[in-house]
Hints:
Elements: H1 4-27, E1 49-59, E2 66-76, E3 81-92, E4 95-98, E5 101-111, E6 114-124, H2 134-147, E7 161-172, E8 175-186, E9 198-209, E10 212-223, E11 233-244, E12 248-259, E13 271-281
Amino acid sequence: MPLTSPRTLLASTLLTMATAGTALADDAAAAPTGPLRFTSLAADGATSEVAAEFGIGVYDDVDENLLSARLSAQFMSPEHVGGYAHITALSIDDTQTLTNAELGGLYRAEGAQGALTVRAGIVLPTGPGEDSGLDEAFLPLVHLATRRPSDLADAGIDSTILRLGVSPSTQSGVVFARADVGIDVFLDGPGSDTPDPLYHIDLAAGIKQGAAAGTIELSSVGSTGTDDSDDGTFDAITLGGQYDAGQATLGAGITLPFDTFDDSDGLGLSGKILSVSVAARM
């Protein structure tokens, strides 16, 4: 599937949602009780929360399903300064492992038209190393490339990685929109060669009517390297729904991965990832 197709789809959806959102705002029975959550995107510092997500990856031509459990948290001070952390546990058949852990700091500036979050984080090599089995080392790559391409750095083998990003967001009535752009710089890596930096671009939008909401998210990651083997991106579209129960938000979604690598270069994985989540505000 060409990369332009999902981006065109998202742009069209944004326009449709904005039109529908204007009409919904006139009839809204209750204001949203909390910020809209985009589960594929990085921490935005909109609120302090602790969250858990459980997923099942169902891939074509793969006999077993890939199970995942992600724990994440972000904490913000009244001065709009805070921090975040996350890690994911993975299991398929008799193989279990963790992704690398990521933690960092956040600064969020809010204005009348929206907000801008600046993020700086570090990926620590808590996942499989060079001495791990091939199956174990492959799990984080498969999961992140298909569920959260923008977090692909968390699959780095024996690597410490600096992650920098900015996240502008805006709200108009019941319509929310957000983007996320960042770069991941390898501070070290296996062997003598340090991998080229990765870049990621995310786009997301949603409508929140009272306590219920629907979202669409596009996540993409690629390498800044000029080598032919680095051409292409990993991409995924996530369609989600959520319910804001006050101090907690319940969510569910389906992620459809695709990549723009040639079949000989890409993972060639097709299928879907089903996920459910709960986030408790602090």
